[in-house]
Amino acid sequence: MYAAATAPTGPAPGPPAPDGRPHTVGFDQYSLLIDGKRVVLWSGEVHPFRLPSPSLWRDVLQKMRAHGYNAVSIYVSWNYHSPAPGSYDFTGVRDLDLFLRIAAETGLYVILRPGPYINAEVDAGGFPGWLTATEGTARTSDPTYLSYVDEWLTAVDRIAARHLFTRGDGTIVLYQVENEYADHVTSPLGRDYMAHLYAKVRADGIDVPLFHNDKGRNGHWAPGTFDTGGETGRWLYGFDGYPSPSAPPPDWGYFGVGGVKGGSTASPRTPGFVPEFGGGWFDPWGGAEFDGKGYAESRRTRDAAYERRFYLTNLANGIKLHNVYMTFGGTSWGWLPAPIVYTSYDYGAALDEARQPTAKLVPMHQLGHLLQSVPELAKLDRADDVTIDEAGGEGGADLGIKGIEGIKAYHLVNPDTKAHFHVLRNDTSDDRRVSLHLDSETSVTVPVPGLDARLIATGIALGRRRLRYSSAQPMLWLTAGRQDIAVFTGRPGDPTETLLECASKPKVTVLEGTARYAYTDGALRVDAEPGAAARVLVEGGGATAPLLLLFADDEASARLWRYDTPSGSVLVRGPALLRTATVRGTTVHLAGDTVKDADLEVWAPRGVSDVVWNRRTVRTRATASGSLRAVRRLPGAPKVTLPALTGWRRQAENPESAADFDDSAWRTADRTSSYSTTPVPTGGPVLFSDDYGFHYGDVWYRGRFEGGSVADTVSFSYVTGTQGLLMAWLDGKPLGTHRMPVPDKKTVRKGTWSATATFPVEVRETTDAGPHVLAVLVRRMQHDEDGKANDSHKAGRGLSSVTFNGASPEVSWRIQGEAAPDPVRGPLNNGGLYGERNGWHLPGFADGRWPAADFPRSERRQGVTWYRTGFRLTVDPEVDASIGLTLTDDDPARAYRVQIFLNGWNMGQYINDVGPQHTFVLPNGVLNTRGPNTLALAVLSDGTTSSGPGKVELTLLGRAAGGVPVTLVDSPGRRN
Ligand code: IPT
To answer: What is the pTM of this model?
Structure first.
């Protein structure tokens, strides 16, 4: 007979809270130990800087907690907070303190990752623009660099230190230094740098374990590889994994080649830790990664089944700290995106860019709740290989863990409780049925769909009872009121068998759905088909409390919400989301979302008789399941109608191109040396914009020279990221536009984009005595990342040199980029277009005298044209409408691009003939959903084709009744 396990384990520790009490955060080779208790971190990556509306942080974090995550991992991007050396801004949308407070209030642990280098597909990998113009090599022990790093860490640590779980003031439990740092691993440049970071962070009062994320399982920066002040026990090893979704998932630890027991890492004394594991992938400009299909394809290729296959493989290999990059990708608004990516950073994540839950949340929900209810999972050893065979096939042969063709079986045991776990993974695309031999007499048959995986448990505690085994996957158990509840999941209609240890024959009632049961051999066997409502009540049989068994299919499981309150656990069934549950007296107050009409059923702590949903009392009746069930269904979200965008006004700009434009206030480009990694032509001058304090967006140059000798061409060498372009004029007449080539999958990672644009010059123009004026606009995109620690973020941006063929006049250059950074919207909001420098993008700008314009537009012109309009929204305050702006054009070859400003906030860049992005998410808060809004479009047209915009429309990306209260983000108009 299948061996029963030893004494039950108590419930897993509940969600963290900032309770003002001291806590300990430690670890052993198995897991984190928080206040001495094992916790598996089931974390998701979110970047606060990719959601510039603090109210919505709560929305995303509440969705994560509801769906079973117990932690959030965040990067903090140095550039986002620092417009200049010595200047650090954590206000408004940059309020890190507020984010950390909300995370704590939501009951999520925080993994803080402030760099200094973060990569993350952001401008310069997170380095501030100004750092690109400083001496010394970044990401090394160079003293100049370290002095800036210390500035940044001092600023960010001052906030972090107020939110440490150890002090009870917040929920930060882990802190990362550097990011995938792999290039100076054995050199003092790197070792001293890492030691410096370690010492600095400790000196700033950060007392939680620190770690680094190795680029792969290389053992880089494992404990003892560099100086951590003797504190090897407070340094964790982590490695990142972005395996190909089309190959079988790799084994990292217990089952890996040379797998190191006790860590599933290269570091045997620290727990298995993946600080980043692919939850999607990014898409470059042009959409080369996903064949132009965009993030929908990222989500399709890394879908729910991918999550089950890869993440269950991770758990089987001993990973106990698991962070999915990304869980909510958000938006690389303004000039935040690294040149490789476009505005959307949706990533194909479980929560989409418009904050909408996707089917990818279902496995996260099932496994997250499981990890939090079943503490046996926090301490696992590899167990003996088991026998599996194809159900209905020949069977029985001892095939070992390789098992049958295309099926992989992992077997693990908790050494203390002897609970066993099996992961069955199907690497073929056919649906399979696998018989798993639990011992010589017992086997279960489990359907494992093609390219999917299942978890099977034996011997786990289910409240006051114990599971012998089940062919259904356990999802959670809790105690609500006087009974225990256990939820199992499976595919709709698949037969499952579940055996509970029972000392004597229990009383069994099938409450809903169909189920059969029998008592034999000290166990109750229940056969049920998971669905919307299969439930069985088990009473007596040797246990002191009833156990309600629920068998839910995927859809039903994602409508089951566990919420642990200080007064006890609550389980809610029905609505699209449960955000919070609070017990006060005899009432449970619930807040959440509905999309369609929904049931509401609540299992609440003892003594609760009344239910409030979103501040309204709900009439309920008590059920035989021990729940309170709403008499009427909750209403879904009402319709949301969006206005058409009309009333556009238009104004062309680029006065800078005119011969007589007054540039006397511009900076003279007279520098002769630069810290850029791009060589400066001998004799100079330096023309890189960063050397003159202009770090983001467009930059203008005007060069004055005397004529007299005959030139036939003029050549501009310039450096940008991908999608850079250059437009030039001579004496006010267009010379032409040059664009960097659109990269493909291979060339996109090439880094710096540089090119030389050569335009013919009319003889008359250079033989005239002059003076002549060259005017050049460079859209230089952003700084490269510095993934290889070779200062690639310091590659020049803008013009590098200008030469004439047939003449060599002396040109004196002036340069103009962005005006002083917007103190509210931050340093990355604006570039140096005339309109931006003069507030054309801001609400309240007086455009009344601009001529009216209709879309679609068709005009051929080299230069910049602005369009503005206003629109008013009247979304019901109790509805969360997620809205986007969609730009389309009947002719995808028309060469123009649009910078989108909503209420002055730069929400991204549309490139008509590159794509693939057409819809730009407008986050509520920046978007006023109950009042007026100002939209401004800055259109750059090449002059080689006619230019749009074509169609510009608001699009509804999702709606729910409920949501979070949204405070408008400050959106000032023109500053005086
Ligand atoms: C890993 C980085 O750590 C992270 O910042 C991000 O850039 C991510 O990749 C890709 O989105 S780097 C790893 C893929 C080599």
So the answer is: 0.97
